Structures are given as C-alpha cells and as structure tokens.
Amino acid sequence: MNRKFLIGAAVGLVAGIGVTMGGTFWMCQRWGPFSNSADARAAWVVRKLSGELKLDKEQRAQLERIKDDVLKKRTQMEPGRKSIHQAILDQVTAEKIDPVALNQIFEDHTGEMKATRLYLITRFAEFHAKLTPEQKVTLKKKMEHFLEHHDSPL
C-alpha cells in the first residue's frame, strides 16, 4: 500500500509539474516576450515596464502611444522586408547572382533603417524626459539585466 501510494504521488507530482510548465510555456508563447505576434510582444513590454517602473497614468498613456506608433511604423516597413527576402530568393534560383541589384536593395533598406532609428531615438528621448530619476535608475538596471542575459555573443 505504501509503495502504491508513493508511486501514485510521484506520478501525480510529475504530471502536475508537466502541466504547470506546459501552461507557463503556452502563456509565454501566446502573451509574453516569446509570442509570434509583434502586438503581443509590444503589449508585454508595456505591461512589464509599467509595473517595473511604477509608471503613473500619464507615463503609461505616453508609452501606449509610443507602442502604437512603433507598431504602425513596423507595419509600414513590412513590405520592404518582404521584398528583400523575395529578391534574395529570386537571386538564389537565377543563373547568375547580380551583386549590384542585391547591394542596391540593401542600400535602400539601410536608408529606411536609418530613418526608423532616428524616429525611435526621438520617441525614446520623449519617454525618458517624463521619467523620474528613480525610474531612470530602475530602467538602467533592467536594461543591464536584459543585456547580460539576452544579448547575443556575436
């Protein structure tokens, strides 16, 4: 009887851990930082920053506006990314690679990326200006933590 109880308890514990881990993974995939949806990832970042920095209503509203603008900008850039992918794929099946055409496509995209970078830095500066000194310190610590744990070694 004790042996059956221990085996049943062990199986139940393993099953419980499996369900908990699976559910957590599913929730992270669906609504968290690992979601396939840019909207879901952006919403997660806003929730995370709002909680960690203890943003007030005005700061949260500004962050939401920035998120919406960035997502809109991302949507505008999507056709360009797709055209780059298609151009590369077309070159792969061609008789001969055309380096001039590929370089021109990437030059055009680099210009788009520069404009986006300038836009994002401006929006970040606007948000930063609304933060308190304590929030800036917390943000710096969170960014350091992120870079330490998630930065690519390349």
Give the amount of beta strand, in percent. Answer: under 5%
Structural class by SSE content: mainly alpha
Shape field: flat
Q: Flag low-confidence runs.
A: none
**How many DSSP E strands?**
0
What is the terminal separation in angstroms? 57 Å
Q: Over all CA atoms, what is the radius of gyration?
A: 23 Å
Mean pLDDT: 83
Provide an overview of this structure:
This protein has 154 residues and is mainly α. It folds into two domains: 1-31; 38-150, no CATH class. It contains five helices and no strands. The chain has helices spanning 2-31, 38-53, 57-93, 99-129, 133-150. Helix 2 packs antiparallel against helix 3 (57-93) and helix 3 (57-93) runs antiparallel to helix 4. It is flat, with a radius of gyration of 23 Å. The relative contact order is 0.07. The mean pLDDT is 83.
In short:
The chain has helices at 2-31, 38-53, 57-93, 99-129, 133-150. By secondary structure, the chain is an all-alpha fold. The protein has 2 domains: 1-31; 38-150, no CATH class.
Supply the key terms.
mainly alpha; 5 helices
Topology summary:
Layout: H1 2-31, H2 38-53, H3 57-93, H4 99-129, H5 133-150
Helix pairs in contact: 2-3, 3-4
